[in-house]
Amino acid sequence: MKNKVVLITGANGEIGHGLIHYLSQTPETQIIALDIKPLEPQLLSLCEQYIQCDIRDNDRVSAIFQKYELDTIYHLASILSTSAERIPETAHYINVDGTIELLKLANQQTARTNRAICFLYPSSIAVYGLPCTDTKRQSGKVREEDWCCPTTMYGCNKLYCEQLGRYYASHYQQLAEAAQEVRLDFRGLRYPGLISAFTVPSGGTSDYGPEMLHAAARGEPYHCFVRPDTRLPFMAMPDAIKALVNLAAAPAETLTRQVYNVTSFSPSALEFQRKVLHHFHEARIDFQPDIPRQSIVDTWPADIDDSAARTDWGWQPDYDFDRAFDEYLIPNIRERYTEPV
Ligand code: NAD
Ligand code: AKB
After folding, report:
1. Residue 286: Cβ within 10 Å count
2. Is 39 among the domain residues?
3. Chain segment 51-105, per-residue pLDDT in tens
4. 117 alpha carbon – ligand 1 mean position (Å)
């Protein structure tokens, strides 16, 4: 019997694809999906209802709360870092206004039903802003509290929405005469760059990793837009889904914070290229750094400390760099780009 209602915004994106596939295998879950773009046909049949609209369309979004009593919200809709830098104000309206409206509606349902909605918010390593490459090299694994001084609109949006979530979960209307009995259960994850075998990213600044791999698999040349020595944390998509659903399932009393770092492996762009070449010997990948995008990546940490997630809710990735390629990316990507005979 389906008795758990889940709303996924940004459902047609990279994480949305993986999450819909994952959640549709749990028979008790009813998936309500929303995206501004049409949902891919193979995902449509896995959802109870699909709403194609802008996350800022308050009438359409509040109608969801009138129709369903939601258990969990995965709020994935967002404009990513490179795209956001090109349309900063619009990105703010989507990333921040879209989020506060959803937090407000989720909190209203929580107050009305006295049952906390679990609100999952994927944040990003973009919340960090390291001042120079020397500091980046010396900082090692950056903790949640460190260097929260983003230089991008996307990073500012993510950091502020984390704070908004914390506010709704802990301090909403703190001057009201009667305190709200049950509060919204907000949980945030700071992801590194994600790599999927089934979707190609667009609009992000960590995209050089997955783009390099997908281009090689398609037999196309690729000009990597960062220097070979550039290092960022990454994660394979199945681990990103696992982190999200495991954080959602963690008992509230085990959580010591509202936002957690999670990561898997931190190759340099050169190590990434070598790994791709190992599997696709003919790949044509060179380095043509794009200075503005490079300077964004230079402010993001080379590695992040995810020990709080490991301690509090048992986070552990299944895929390190080698296993991600050998067992997940390469087999699925080869199949994806192989013409049927
Ligand atoms: P994506 O770009 O693939 O998907 C985002 C989705 O949001 C898209 O399908 C897009 O159509 C939708 N969207 C954009 N504007 C919208 C609007 N106004 N109304 C409704 N829908 C809208 O991104 P993703 O990789 O699936 O990321 C999902 C979430 O995870 C985002 O919040 C992103 O910031 C976060 N995240 C992603 C990564 C990564 O490397 N992919 C890393 C860190 C955090
Ligand atoms: C981006 O590059 O914008 C995303 C992210 C790391 O948040 N992939």
Report:
1. 10
2. no
3. 999 999 999 999 999 999 999 999 999 999 999 999 999 999 999 999 999 999 9
4. 21
